Amino acid sequence: MSASIVLPGDPIPLESLIDFSSSEAEPTIQLGPGTLHIPPSTVVPIRAGALMTSSSKSATTTTIYIDTPTGRYTPAIHDVVIGTVTSRFGDLEKAYYRISLPSCTSPQGILSASAFANAASRKTRPNLAPGTVIYARISATSLALGEPELECFDEKTGKEAGFGELKGGMVADISVGLARRLLLLSSSSSFQDTQKMSVVDILGQSLAFEIAVGRNGRIWINSDNCATTVAVIRAIQETEDLPYLEMQEHVAKILKQMRK
Questions:
Q1: For residues 150 and 215, is the Cβ–Cβ distance under 8 A?
Q2: Do the domains 172-258 and 80-167 match in fold?
Q3: Which of 99, 126, 133, 232 sits CB 3.0–4.6 Å from 166 for a disulfide?
Q4: Which CATH architecture has domain 80-167?
Q5: Would you list the domain boundaries of the chain?
Q6: Could you write out the DSSP letters of every residue in 5-68?
Q7: What is the enclosing helix (H) or strand (E) of 140?
Q8: What DSSP string describes 71-86?
């Protein structure tokens, strides 16, 4: 993963960002938030921020996006988010939930009661009460829709794959920039390239916990005891801007305080 500061309209030099000779197959370029394609082959940023690239584990796909560490999250298809059920509407056959999406330019999303794995019949669909925390994927968004549509299953397999109700645990806020970085580190080859672990990797060496990261700047942490959950949340929130070595030291300090 690499970064440089760009301004709207600056041409993005793809040749310097992507190694077209690293594999036999021609690499695929995927444009993320904050970028615009001008045919035939020009890509420019549409907002100021850090120009980021991240390669897939197979190194055949490179994602290019503009990272802004502060501000609100703009919904994009395929992104994962953490939200809270606020209400239910519709009839028995076509029921829907309204989902609160904090730190998002669209503060509410819509989730169909049938948009879950194994929800083909009414009997197998979940009955979510207001206040339920859910982990979902954005399946559709547009100005016409107004509110993004959500679903709680893996689009490739149709299985649950961790989506749905997040039971127990605690939810906390982080910056949208940190959320994106944590998600990229969990799905890219960045760790192998840099030999530097994320704060989540370091915590995982000493603690047992579950984590879900929402692109809208929310994390859900669950563990066997409250002290571990709070320590994990503190470590993630307090080390965002620290250099790698200082981050390691601060995590060690938090763990020491937790064990007293």
A1: no
A2: no
A3: 133
A4: Beta Barrel (2.40)
A5: 2-67, 80-167, 172-258
A6: EE-TTPPP-HHHHS-TTSSSSPPEEEE-TTEEEETTTEEEESS-EEEEEEEBTTSSEEEEEEE-
A7: strand 133-140
A8: SPBPP-TT-EEEEEEE
Instruction: Tell me yes or no: is domain 2-67 CATH 3.20.20.450.
Output: no
Is the bond preceding 130 in cis, omega lying within 30 degrees of 0? no
Q: In the numeric block, which tokens belong to residue 23?
A: 């594999």
- Contact 102/218 with Cβ under 8 angstroms? yes
Question: How is residue 258 written in tokens?
Answer: 């937790």
The pTM of the full predicted model, rounded to 2 decimals, is 0.77
- Placement of tokens 């991240």 in the chain: 54
CA–CA dist 56, 89 (Å, integer): 40
**CATH number belonging to domain 172-258:** 3.30.1370.10
